[in-house]
Amino acid sequence: MMIWEAFLVILVIYTAWASPFEFGFLRKPGGPLSILDNIVNGFFAIDIVLTFFVTYLDRTTCLLVDDRKQIAWKYATTWLAFDVISTIPSEVALKVMPKPLSYGLFNMLRLLRLRRLEKDRNVNYIWVQCAKLICCHFPLNLPWSTPDWKWFLQVTLFAVHCAGCFFYLLAADYRDPKMTWIGASMEDFHHKSLWVRYVTSIYWSITTLTSVGYGDLHAVNTREMIFDIVYMLFNLGLTSYLIGNLVVLGTSKTRRFGDVVLVWSAWVFLDVGLWRDKTIFTQITFNTENMLARGRMELPLTLCFATLRGDHLLLNHLLKRGLDPNESNNNGRTALHIAASKGHESCVVLLLDFGANPNLKDSVGSVPLWEAILGKHEPVIRLLLGNGAKISLGDVGQYACLAAEQNNLELLKEIDHCGGDVTLPKTNGPTTTALHVAVCEGNVEVVKCLLECGADARKPDEYGWTPQDLAEQQGHEDIIALFKSLTEDRRSIYVAGSQDQPNGSRFLDKFKNKPKMLPAYAARQVDGSMWWLSHPRRHRTNGFHDSLFGIMSTAHKDSDQTARFPVKETASAEKRYASTRVTVSCPEKGDITGKVVLLPETFEELLHIGVKKYGFLPSKILSKSSGARIDDIVLIRDDEHLVFAGDNITSSCVK
């Protein structure tokens, strides 16, 4: 198709030259020009047929229309008539047209073919669009000329050619040949050869255009004078346009050079406001270039974006390019959070293979395992558990409270099944447990499930309300009865144990279900804060002694030995707990000497101290003296020096 269009352009150029020539110098068809014209007309007739199969662009919808009926209607209502008229042979037109209309005038209608070049975006326009289209599409191949110089030369030559043809037409049609510009110096110019007449006309046209007439040729009659006036006015406009473009052409290189100098000056000298902060500006530039080199532009090509779409191919491509699998968005959510919540198992496998941490928390305390549990994505849950995911590293108290608030017993059991302690209070906000929430909701099944998991009905929140108090205050009779039945079961166990021992009632009186209070000296000031202010949770009761196994095992001890030492053992245990102090430090945060704190009850609370003191969750706890890793709270001795460390700290670094 492009070859055909290029071939038609050549035919259009021939038409643009031949039509003014035949209009000025020929009176009837004949010779090689007539044969060549008919051949050109044949090619354009073929193009008329092909146009019915060419799509066009609808300017309203900006869509290509390929419906043949619409194409035919569009062409028939626009340019079909003009194309057919310009394709009619000159011999047929000469017989059909009235006699006063000459042969050359009909050929001028073929200049309508120039519109075929209007869709060429490489073509520009000047005074006459057609002339400029022809000249610009096929520039002269002069070795000394630039494209702009060639364009100016071609426009000038085309204007000279058209003016020469019009000049000769005025002289040939005048009633007195001697009273014309060519007859005044060449009386028998009608008998001269066509070449001599064309060259003379071009000579007169170009001397008039350049305003360097030598006096040998000049306008004689009124028609020639009027045409000369119009031609000279056109010459003024054309010359001004050419000179203006030549000036712009000459200064364009200087202007481009100035722009280059400004660009390089801004890069070398920087802006005035950034001159003093050159180091910071250089760092910003380096970081920006580094991000661009890794493809981290404003485009949404991030791990979170690929995971949100579930596109594991794009995710694999981004991970292979070196993106951090643990990168997070503004809410602290990583790609693993999103993949777990959406259930994209393939994305979860990819992220874990590239080293994604399955225990990272977002800004609200959610871990990927909790996201998978909420979405009920069992394959993802099994996959995360198999790769070391622990729901206990998240805010399990918040998860349990949410399940209790939604009366979702299955969700609560799933949390317990995955290793979460549903009896823990929330870490963010009021220290409310799931049992408090379940009592407020009045859900007996959830309350029963929590009690089976070890929840304490007499454990108060930060306002002093216990679940049992809430049940009585809100009038939940079923829950009150459940609490009473639990209390009666425990009392019956106590009575059964006391019947076997004569002094058992005296001993069992020490094991009432009441929380143990720390002695007064335990509330000493540590690091400028009081124990009850710095410790996030109340001290829990000794669960073993209050449990069924603890009561039964204690009841079977020797009665005399039991009667002598219960108070002493309890007091010594409280004293030992209150006096257990450890020193914690974090070399990664610049703290080498350490701080003295009271040892909490659980290992999770010890990790929470690291978060509170140093602002990050340690991945391991090492002993300062031995360098060994500590995984259980019972292994820590009094006055032990503990080191909170991350993954990049080894045992040899803390000794």
TrEMBL record:
Keywords of this entry: ANK repeat, Ion channel, Ion transport, Membrane, Potassium, Potassium channel, Potassium transport, Signal, Transmembrane, Transmembrane helix, Transport, Voltage-gated channel
Membrane topology: Multi-pass membrane protein
Protein name: KHA domain-containing protein
GO cellular component: monoatomic ion channel complex
Stretch forming the signal peptide: 1-18
PANTHER family the UniProt entry points to: POTASSIUM CHANNEL AKT1
Principal location class: membrane
Domain KHA: start-end pairs: 581-655
Places the protein is found: Membrane
Repeat region (ANK), residues: 331-363, 364-396, 430-462
Keyword Ion transport belongs to the record: yes
Transmembrane segments: 42-65, 123-140, 152-174, 195-214, 229-250, 257-275
GO molecular function: voltage-gated potassium channel activity
